[in-house]
Amino acid sequence: MPQRSVVEAPNPFREGLRIKESLEPCVMVIFGATGDLTHRKLLPALYNLALEHPLPAGFSVVAFARRPYTDETFRQQALESINQYSRQKPVNPQVWDSFASGIHYLQSNFHDPEGYTKLNQLLNKLDQERGTSGNRIFYLSTPPSQYPEIIQNLGAAGLNRNRKGWTRIIVEKPFGHDLATARELNRQIGRVFKEEQIYRIDHYLGKETVQNILVFRLANGIFEPVWNRRYVDHVQITVAENLGLEGRAGYYEESGAIRDMIQNHMLQLLTLVAMEPPIAFDGNSVRDEKVKVLHALQPLVGRDVQNNTIRAQYGPGWVGGKQVPGYLQEQGVSPTSTTETYVALKTFIDNWRWAGVPFYLRTGKHLPKRVSEIAIQFKQPPLMLFKDHDTQGQVEPNVLTLRIQPDEGISLKFGAKVPGTDMQIRSVNMDFFYGSSFVREQPEAYERLLLDSMHGDSTLFTRRDEVEAAWSFVQNILDEWQNAPRDTVHTYESGSWGPQAADEFIWRDGRRWRRP
Ligand code: BG6
User: PANTHER family recorded for this chain (predicted)?
Assistant: First the structure.
């Protein structure tokens, strides 16, 4: 049977998480199932799906990993993880029993062909016993260095397709370490799986507020006409974190903020803000438009990199009332490391809609708080009639803020007359909060994404050309940074909003960073 086409698949993006059409039973095989991601995110997400949207009765999980566990010991650990990390607590014993009966553990090394033979046998057995009809999702949740051997072994064992049902593969981030390795990984997967079988995860796309960017823009008539260079002065995208390394020094030293956050999450936010309306709401039409934005990004090369990017490392300081070490003092970090924990950059999108409008992106660890937002600042009115009357001597511009997390919502800042006999103008906000407008709790990003992968909807996953286009933009910066002197890596105090150089960088344009 041919693989089901992505375009034909129903799109739950349009319908919330409510499952209107029935899902076909399937097996999710998780490679690296004893790892952190599986326990913190994947198992709790699957359990919540089982709880709220009854997954098909035969839905099964095969946990494929190296440690010597049995079905029972793995189920016990899964229960502990769900108890700890699930959105819905306490665990419902009936739902858990039924969910747990579908969890199986397969111990194997990732390079051992015999493991894949056993996997094949187990999957066939589950097809018989649980009615999963040959429908399979392979989830790569191992360190990326193991992806190639797993993919190759899946192919060698003939597990990349089967005659009875559909086969899909989900690939976790990081997708490549740079442009060359991302291309190579795409080639390796592409030799074994067809593009429509491949689901590259960027968990930001599973966030409700991120999906709402397009709904806000395209389901309302009043914003799109002003969503362009005629009315927008600039855009600021901020993803600030108060956390530090969280025990991930090994990974982070090799990654840094540009690979960890800009190449994926932040460029994804930028594409959703900047893209043209797609011709249809399906995986390929949406991604076609996102890719065009990435291709239109003005490449930063040579001196442009120095002038348009700031990188920095956190020094010691205080975050959330706790004293924290500097990056170079963190365990597992080289004392001479130049890995950046903060990046600010300015980029332009060279197309008719956005030419000349700067997009400022900034992200960092050990900043004062966790907050992600997109702020669209509009131009001032053509003639400022009230400039002598407001309190500060200047009326503030309109800003539309899409608050991604926390306190999810949207606010519009505008000037209003202060009640009184004189003419004073002050900025006020018109606010929408998810929390007060909707009673329904927001699903976790992974719930949405796992469900979409079961439905065969790849709208919220990144496509091959998209990942490569994002890497192309970032690669130029990486190349330049590699050759730049060490003193181009600035330092900022932990708990501050980043290095002074980042403030100066935006002041040069006569603008300032928002304090979210
Ligand atoms: C991950 C990064 O992809 O995203 C982490 O590797 C980062 O370093 C995390 O902390 C942020 O995700 P969220 O959902 O907490 O904003």
Answer: GLUCOSE-6-PHOSPHATE 1-DEHYDROGENASE, GLUCOSE-6-PHOSPHATE 1-DEHYDROGENASE G6PD
In a domain, 50, yes or no: yes
Residue 89 marked ligand-binding: no
Question: Rounded to the nearest whole angstrom, what is the distance from the C-alpha of residue 239 to the centroid of ligand 1?
Answer: 9
Q: Does the annotation list 207 as a binding residue?
A: yes
Q: Which residues are catalytic?
A: 265
Cβ 241 under 6 angstroms from ligand 1: yes
Per-residue confidence in pLDDT tens, the chain, 516 aa: 444 444 444 444 444 444 445 789 999 999 999 999 999 999 999 999 999 877 888 999 999 999 999 999 999 999 999 999 999 989 999 999 999 999 999 999 999 999 999 999 999 999 999 999 999 999 999 999 999 999 999 999 999 998 899 999 999 999 999 999 999 999 999 999 999 999 999 999 999 999 999 999 999 999 999 999 999 999 999 999 999 998 899 999 999 999 999 999 999 999 999 999 999 999 999 999 999 999 999 999 999 999 999 999 999 999 999 999 999 999 999 999 999 999 999 999 999 999 999 999 999 999 999 999 999 999 999 888 876 655 555 689 999 999 999 989 999 999 999 999 988 889 999 999 988 898 888 899 999 999 999 999 999 999 999 999 999 999 999 999 999 999 999 999 999 999 999 999 999 999 999 998
Same domain, 413 and 477: yes
Atom 8 of ligand 1, nearest CA residue: 260
- Say if 85 falls within a structural domain: yes
**Residue 260 Cβ contacting ligand 1 at under 6 Å:** yes
Does residue 8 lie in a domain region? no
In order, the DSSP letters of 455-507 are HT--TTSB-HHHHHHHHHHHHHHHHHHHHS-GGGEEEEEETSSS-HHHHHHHH
Least Cα distance to 13 among 458, 407, 433, 374 occurs for: 458
Judge if 258 and 376 occupy the same domain.
Answer: yes
Q: Is the peptide bond before 516 cis (omega within 30 degrees of 0)?
A: no
Number of domains in the chain: 2
* Residue 99 structural domain: 27-172
Choosing from 172, 193, 213, the residue where a domain stops is: 172
Phi, psi of 356 (to 5 degrees): 85, -5
Give bridge partners of residue 460 from the DSSP assignment: none
Let me know whether 229 and 337 are in one domain: yes
**486 Cα to the center of ligand 1, angstroms:** 26
pTM: 0.94
CATH code of the domain covering residue 76: 3.40.50.720
Kindly give the number of the ligand 1 atom that is closest to the alpha carbon of 241. 10
Angle value at C-alpha 393, between 392 and 397, nearest 5 degrees: 80
